[in-house]
Specification:
Elements: H1 4-28, H2 37-44, H3 57-88, H4 90-103, H5 112-119, H6 124-127, H7 133-139, H8 144-167, H9 171-179, H10 184-213, H11 215-219, H12 228-237, H13 241-269, H14 272-276
Helix pairs in contact: 2-13, 3-4, 3-8, 3-10, 5-8, 8-10, 9-10, 10-13, 12-13
Amino acid sequence: MLNLPNRALALATVLAFLVFWSWAASAIGNSVILPTVGEVAKLLFRPGDDLLSMGSLFANIGVSLLRVLLGYCVAVLIAIPLGIAMGYCSIAHAMFGDFLNIFRPIPPLAWVPLVMAWFGIASLADLFGVDRGQWFIYLNNFKYSMIFIIFIGAFYPVLTSSIHGVRNVNRVFIDTARVLGASQADIFRKILLPAALPSMVNGMRIGLGVAWMCLVSAEMLPGSISGVGYLITHAYTMASTDIVVAGMAGIGLTGALMDWLFRRVERRCFSWQRLAR
């Protein structure tokens, strides 16, 4: 955790940035190019106000957060079991390693044309057969195309960290457990998984950050009518740069909060790692 001097340094950096921003906005003198700190702060301190008839900043961030968590959870549910299998079983690694590495360098944004051809504007409303009413409005916000882009962004960090975590488990522990008569299930539950979990959690933390960064790209896809990424894009077309910057700040603050929660989990659950170093 940060001690008092480090917190003071962090606060000084933030204040220096705000001072520079205020000076730059004053020097430019054009809020379309760079809004003032006060204009953006007014929006951030009143997140429930309606913006451009598109709902509030708070509501749009909430929709975006649900989209990110949905795509992220799908990535975690697939990547962790696959990563464990590839890390522990050489046959699984031989089967999937090179194949998955072909797709790793492809940026999530490059998938957009193909994803639109696959899914179009289909959403969870189509999955559940809802075509009217309040539930349709709600479920229609979650397009398959958006979920897929977020999924791709989160998948590889989680997969790579899971493989790394399993492969770096001390084999002496596994061999010793086998000699003492432990079953394969016991080895997995009591040795392999606990030792690999710190690496997996770190990969989940990185994957969530990447998924959040893919958000704006996902919400720029056709069919999007809500979300902070869509709000930013629409505000840009209306020359409302203060809303653009407020939306960016909302994305940054929400992402930083999620990262902080992950770091707290790491500190609480894996403090033994620091003692082992």
